[in-house]
Amino acid sequence: MDDYIPFLRPFFANNQKKVLQVWQEQIPLVNKRRSILKNPNLEPNVVPFSYIDSLLDLKVDGRDSVPTDPELVTLCSELINGGIDTTSTVIEWAMARIIDNPNI
């Protein structure tokens, strides 16, 4: 919310610190996946392909480089949040319809 209404930023300072801390904790996971792809024998029980694998070599028009580790973490977070938000919205809508019309 503080991104849209900047004068609220002081009220969300603690949340921002927590988000940045979690974000920094996820970067080593990107590096670990990258090392597993380079040497699959490191962990033989790992899933052979994942969403992040498609992002590691992503070429974006107008950019000369692949996404940075923080950008990769952000893209993965957006995918997960998008799936959760869609599902929770559908459940909320369905419950509202059931309450509105219990005969369904």
From TrEMBL:
Q: What GO CC terms are in its UniProt record?
A: membrane
Q: Which GO terms describe its molecular function?
A: heme binding; iron ion binding; oxidoreductase activity, acting on paired donors, with incorporation or reduction of molecular oxygen, NAD(P)H as one donor, and incorporation of one atom of oxygen
Kindly state which keywords UniProt assigns to this record, in alphabetical order. Answer: Membrane, Metal-binding, Transmembrane, Transmembrane helix
Coiled-coil region list: none
InterPro entries in the record: Cyt_P450, Cyt_P450_sf, Plant_metabolite_P450s
The answer, when asked if Nucleotide-binding is one of the entry's keywords, is: no
Q: Where in the cell is it found?
A: Membrane
The membrane topology noted for this protein in its Swiss-Prot or TrEMBL record is: Single-pass membrane protein
| Signal peptide span | none
Question: What PANTHER family does the annotation carry?
Answer: CYTOCHROME P450 77A4 (PTHR24298:SF47), FLAVONOID 3'-MONOOXYGENASE-RELATED (PTHR24298)
This chain belongs to which protein, by name? Cytochrome P450
